[in-house]
Amino acid sequence: MASSERKPYKRKADSRQEIIQAAAICFMRHGLEKATMEDVARELNATKGRVYHHFRSKNEIYFAVYRQAMQFCFDAVQPILAQALPADESLLRMATAHGHVMMDTLPYQRSIRLGVDVYLRGSTTEAEREVLTELIARRNEYEGLYRAVMRQGNADGTLSVPDEALAGRALMGALNSLVDWYRVRPDQDQVERSRIAQVLARTVINGLRA
After folding, report:
1. What global pTM score does this model have?
2. Residue 127: Cβ within 10 Å count
3. Residue ranges of the DNA-binding region (predicted)?
């Protein structure tokens, strides 16, 4: 009985995640301002009622997409940070992992890229502005992981970073720009994606090596 009682919760979680995935695709395809709840339902091949059962508004779905996008990034780099590596090698692996995340979860990452500025200059409620502030803090926390490795590199002599804050922003800007120019091709395999991630990471990180 305990097992059967847990099933509805699993289905609910799965359904919510499917909506978030569909919304990310719609935001990327139509643009954040033009995408509608109807588009999300159509992508799911479901009714709007199913979408509204989990989310009250498009803004709420966008915030969920943003949280998931950031979680993908944290999940990719935290195992690297857990290893005892020289700072320059750690930073290179983190940048490579980030590049993979940008490509592998492109709809989510492009939604973040397009979305925050739209909401900050648009009409939002006080509650929504609080959520945006929380999400931006989460993004800054992620960038802080890279800055911490830069500080470590300055200390152990493997990196030369005169201004960690400026370097962190430049690094994130270069890596995140991948979502602007990267396009998924039917003939592209994981080997090619790995090459793109590695070349981009080396290009950015080599300028910070001691």
Report:
1. 0.86
2. 9
3. 36-55
123-172: per-residue pLDDT in tens?
A: 577 888 888 889 889 999 999 999 999 999 999 999 999 999 999 999 99
In 3D space, the residue among 153, 140, 141 whose CA is nearest the CA of residue 206 turns out to be: 153
Q: How far apart are CA 171 and CA 98, in angstroms?
A: 11
Mean pLDDT score, 166-186: 91
Topology annotation, domain 58-206: Tetracycline Repressor; domain 2 (1.10.357)
Whether 99 shows a pLDDT value over 80: the answer reads yes
Classify residue 77 by burial, with Cβ atoms within 10 Å: 0-12, 13-18, 19+. Answer: buried
Locate the domains of the chain by residue range: 58-206
Please check whether residue 26 is in contact with residue 39, taking contact to mean a CB–CB distance below 8 angstroms: yes
Closest CA to 142 of 104, 102, 190: 102
Residues 6+ apart with CB under 8 A from 205: 88, 91, 92, 95, 171
Residue 118 burial (CB count, 10 A): 13
